[in-house]
Amino acid sequence: MTYKWIASFLLLMSQQLFAQPLFWSAEKNGQELLIFGSMHLGTEDMYPLPQPITQFLQNSDGLILEANLESSDPITPPQNNRTAKEVLSDEQLRTLKEISDDLGIEPYAIANSPAWAAAMTLQKTLNETAGQSAVYGVDSNMQALAIKYDVPVLAFESVQFQIDLLSKFGEELLIDTISDYDKTIPYIECLSESWKVGDKHKLEQVAEEFSYYPEVQQAFMTDRNKDWAKKLASGKLIPEDSGKYIVVVGTLHLVGENNLIALLESEGYKTTQLSTSKQATCSFSEES
Predict the structure, then answer these.
(1) Dist CA 130 CA 141 (whole Å)
(2) Is the Cα dihedral 223, 228, 253, 255 positive or negative?
(3) Three-state SS for 153?
(4) Tell me: the pLDDT tens digits for 21-38?
(5) Residue 138, Cα to own-chain centre: how many angstroms?
(6) What is the pLDDT of residue 243?
(7) Is 151 within 8 Å of 57 (Cβ atoms)?
């Protein structure tokens, strides 16, 4: 047995054993989809992305995202623009000021921002404190690659739809962010590790937490997953019976109840998990 043979064998084994973020194939009537779970904010060590992902994209007929991040469509301010100081109690406002000071955010500005925008500012700053950045978001990097490879970019939703949805539940999102502030950074770090190694069990635990907020779960997860599955299966977005498309959506849409993979199976797609998973070493606070 030569050294080269051993080296090749070890390389093969390491590729088979190396954990990856979750991705599936889905096939129906000549249509071939590769469905990849993303992180909208990320870290440098998430790259390079798995080779099967980038290779499939390069040879695909289109990249399908939740929303086109390069869209130039004008944005109309949401109707629900109640500010943080209008929806929070005095105690919650004091907590918001303490959090703002801790994160280096101007307290007056965030208190006078719409509740949904204040929640997004806090979440974004917390992610950045945990070392994450939109620069390393999977969606934006996949879109940049699609442009490089001259692959068409399609979208399930408009940016306007997403902003309107966030504004509808802005008060709940802000209050929840304030209440869970101390737990958020360890939570983000464990979520990121779970994504990197494709720990489906831990990601399902995160998805299950939406069940404590039925209206939020229905609007952000269930309704959108059903809409996306219908758009893929009906021919409204892409041809029903041909083509290779890569679908990139938040990884929590691919696990838990009414996930996109299960909904596509109900539409007649044959799905196969292609990624190799392993257990993350971290634990969420609820497990500790």
Answers:
(1) 20
(2) positive
(3) strand
(4) 999 999 999 999 999 999
(5) 8
(6) 94
(7) yes
Q: Is the peptide bond before 48 cis (omega within 30 degrees of 0)?
A: yes
* Calpha distance 150→23 (Å, rounded): 23
Structure-token pair, residue 56? 């499939």
Sign for the pseudo-dihedral over CA of 16, 26, 216, 41: positive
Supply 132's token pair. 């994450």
Burial class (CB in 10 A: 0-12, 13-18, 19+), 61: middle
pTM: 0.90
Kindly list the strands in the beta sheet with 244-250, ordered across the sheet, starting from the edge strand earlier in the chain: 153-157, 62-67, 244-250, 31-38, 23-28, 270-273
Of all residues in the chain, what percent carry a pLDDT higher than 70? 92
Amino acid at 180: D
* pLDDT per residue as tens digits for the range 195-254: 999 999 999 998 888 878 899 999 999 999 999 999 999 988 998 888 999 999 999 999
Rg of the chain's alpha carbons, rounded to an integer? 20
Asked if 275 contacts 177 with a C-beta cutoff of 8 angstroms, the reply is no
Q: Which two tokens stand for residue 228?
A: 């996306």
DSSP letter (8 states) at residue 268: T
Tell which residue, 23, 66, 69, 81, has the closest CA to residue 221: 66
Q: How far apart are CA 241 and CA 222, in angstroms?
A: 26
- Who contacts 64 (Cβ-Cβ below 8 Å, separation ≥6)? 154, 155, 156, 232, 237, 238, 245, 246, 247, 248
Output the CA–CA distances (angstroms, integers) from residue 187 to 116, 126, 202, 208, 283, in the order listed: 21, 11, 11, 15, 8
264 within 8 A of 271, measured Cβ to Cβ:
yes
Comparing CA positions, the residue from 200, 271, 207 lying closest to residue 233 is 271
